[in-house]
Design a protein that fits this description.
Rossmann fold; transmembrane helix; 3 domains; Calcium-transporting ATPase, cytoplasmic domain N; six-stranded antiparallel β-sheet; membrane; 14 helices
Length: about 350
Amino acid sequence: MVIFIASGVAAERGVIFKSAGSIEIAYKTSHVVFDKTSTITEGKLTAAREWHSGSDQNATQSLLLGLVGSIKHPVSAAVVRHLKAQGVTPSQVSDPKTLTVEGTAKGTGLTLQAGTLLQMRSRTFCFTIGGSVAAIFGLEDSVRPDAASTIKILLDRGISVHIISGDDDGAVRSVAAQLNIAETNVRPRCTPADKQAYIQDLLEGPASPNHTNAESKKTEKPVVIFCGDGTNDSIALAQATIGVHMNEGGTDVARSAADVVLMRPNLGGIPTAITVSRKSIQRVVFNFSWSFVYNLFAILLAAGAFVNARIPPEFAGLGELVSVLPVIVAAMLLRWSKI
């Protein structure tokens, strides 16, 4: 009953648990790992700067739009919006291949390639034709308004916070610095396989060094939450103890791989999920403790251990109600608990 009510309480706050197992273990969280784009940041990239190497800018833009027009990653989508706003029409490209944000294709005897280029503190999208740089776009994004407060709450609870991202080193570390995340917990330029490996390393390592309970570090395995939204996060979502999906603009593949879905674009759903789990387990422990004490007393009473104690027959039927009622009340009070 407690788990059932807890799932409803979480749902009212925009947090959907897919299974009872996630509720039962979330309170043990030792690490929370975030993807950056569209998770820590709003994912609404804009092309702030644009540079072209040749004189035929229109042809370059047309080829680029034809190459990345169908890619859903926020970086490519930002470039596509920028080009369409200028009235660019896509060219037909042959043999296109896509790997997350990057795209390659064969066209007019040349190889077209688009993807990110390393640059300090910003993300740069680079387009090459035949191995030569044809265009560069400078992209900007902003941190979610609730990111700083959410991460502060997690750190105050002794939970280790990490960022892993496929973004450039400077851009990722700049965001981490804004949010007071330790540099040792930042991994830029990660492929989906790199994200999976990082999560696995955390699962096999010690619990968070920030935990105050030293004994729990020795006996409990780390519980890792990973929060992401893209298809390239799917492996990490499945690898983590609890995968959390940001539903706003996320992909169906990532959603299906996650254990928890945040229905609102609010990172505060992660501390909420942990709090719901903790208060649920407290009530489960209380219910089991009450049942044990009550039934032990009842067995001893029935066995005659208390010679002078008697229950009038007309009140004997209340025994079951007295046993169950505190359990029901403890579960129902979760709805009005401060979460």
